[in-house]
Amino acid sequence: MSQQPSGWYDDPSNPDMLRYWDGVSWTNHTAPRKSPTAGQGSSGGSATGSATGSVGVDRTGAAAPTPTRPELGRQTGVPQAPQQPQQYYQQAPANAQWMHDIRTTADGVQLASWGKRFGAWVIDGIILAIVGGFISWFATPTLSTRFGELVDAAEAGDQARLTAIQGDLAGPVLQFSIVLWLVTTAYCLIFWTTTGQTPGKLALGISVRRADRPGPLPIGTAVLRRVVPLVGQFVPFLSLLDGLWPLWDDKRQALHDKVAGTQVVEGKQPRHQA
């Protein structure tokens, strides 16, 4: 059965609204079927193909069939895909600038905001910090002890002992950093290639996909997405620049997204391609 394409459809629960279908389920994003200037076109004439008519407009400008209402699947508790024939606006109804302002992928899926991406990063960071604590406790048991000695030497002003302990710590710290990076990479690859959602992304209702098609990431794409974070361990400020890049990028991509050809979007990813 073919996957219903993402886009704006008649809202099953409100005939005066449109609701965004992300390709997997209905989202919380809605918009009025009537734009603020529905009665006028840019030249003062009547708007054609706007959200007020009974004929939709797809991204090519072709007329869509007369709409029928999709069902939300409330009886089963599972949102059901819109069924054809259906009023469908892959990008937005014509003459509706208020909807064109929503940034989407090339195939019309709404991009996640920087705020949601940052929130997901914080949640994943907390999870990985807890995991890192266990790794430090079991994999490098002497690390916490040596850090305690380092603090004691600093408080005592014993420079010779301080220097010696710092030298002793270099190896365990490097070992811990490598192990933690590998664990973080495994954490990302497992979730990106299975659901497209780490726990942080799942909590915020966003996911990662290839820019040119939906679905979880192939392993090669997922590995490429970890290249910039790896280089950022050795290049000052690269990690900060990478994290802030979606704020001004027109495709809301971080640098690691550009390297891998990925985008972070609203909603889930389909497990299987049509």
Automatic annotation (TrEMBL):
Source superkingdom: Bacteria
Keyword presence, Translocase: no
Pfam families named in the record: DUF2510 (PF10708), RDD (PF06271)
Topology in the lipid bilayer: Multi-pass membrane protein
Transmembrane segments: 118-139, 173-192
Subcellular location: Cell membrane
Composition bias type Low complexity, residue spans: 79-91
Region of interest: Disordered: 1-20, 27-91
Domain DUF2510: 7-38
Main location: membrane
The protein, known as: RDD family membrane protein YckC
Organism for this UniProt entry: Terrabacter aeriphilus
